[in-house]
Specification:
CATH architecture of the largest domain: Sandwich
Radius of gyration: 42 Å
Order of helices and strands: HEEEEEEEEEEEH
Shape: rod-shaped
CATH topology of the largest domain: Immunoglobulin-like
Number of helices: 2
Keywords: Glycoprotein, Membrane, Signal, Transmembrane, Transmembrane helix
Domain Immunoglobulin: 40-139
Distance between the termini: 161 Å
Strand order of the largest sheet: 2-11-10-5-6-7
InterPro entries: CD2/SLAM_rcpt, Ig-like_dom_sf, Ig-like_fold, Ig_sub
CATH superfamily of the largest domain: Immunoglobulins
Structural class: alpha+beta
CATH class of the largest domain: Mainly Beta
Subcellular location: Membrane
Main location: membrane
Helix content: 40-55%
């Protein structure tokens, strides 16, 4: 039978111990990574509205934030910035994007082409990255529908006014009829009394 040498066994234990210590030291020195929260992953907006793509990130080091827009028209880089450093906004989005320290961006005066997927990438200086996605739906305000609703509203108001006038006329006619009948009854009663007086 072959037996392992005592020297090799001792060296193996030492190597494993050193490797374990190095791994523990590396783990302690490595930052805790990046965390990203997207509170509203779906946004519905109408044309010409301002929308906030809200996120919240945290990391130990300095982070680089990048936003991209993906739609049927292609992929467009919106903005990239480093915490407390530079802000690089794409020419297409100049004067339409506002950046915030927590990684959020505000998009002004949205149009139909702004619908699609918005991807955020947060990368810390040690190379650790995390990702988030927000879906934006943009709807047009159809003025024809509003015009139709306005016309229906006017028609209903006109019909209501006609009904009110008709009810007022009916009430007035009924009142006049009752007054006339009362007058006739009074006249008839007076005539009967006069006849009775004459007969007596």
């Amino acid at each position: 039978l072959m037996r392992p040498l005592r020297g090799w066994r001792g060296r193996g234990i030492v190597v494993r111990t050193v490797a374990l210590c190095l791994a523990a030291g590396w783990a302690l020195q490595t930052p805790g990574g990046v965390s990203l929260v997207v509170p509203q992953p779906n946004i519905n907006a109408t044309v010409a509205q301002n929308i906030l793509l809200s996120v919240e990130y945290s990391c130990r080091g300095v982070a680089t934030i990048e936003w991209k827009h993906v739609s049927t028209w292609g992929t467009t880089k919106i903005v990239e910035w480093k915490s407390g450093n530079y802000v690089n906004i794409s020419t297409v989005y100049k004067d339409r994007v506002t950046t915030f320290e927590n990684g959020s961006i505000q998009l002004l005066n949205v149009g139909m082409r702004d619908a699609g997927y918005y991807f955020i990438t947060v990368t810390e200086e040690h190379g650790t990255s995390t990702y988030g996605t927000i879906i934006v739906n943009v709807y047009e305000i159809i003025y024809e529908d509003l015009h139709f609703v306005a016309v229906i509203f006017v028609l209903l108001a006109a019909v209501s006014a006609i009904l009110v006038c008709f009810m007022w006329l009916c009430n007035k006619s009924l009142h006049l009829f009752q007054k006339k009948m009362t007058h006739k009854l009074t006249a008839s009663t007076t005539e009967e009394i006069e006849l009775e007086t004459i007969e007596c």
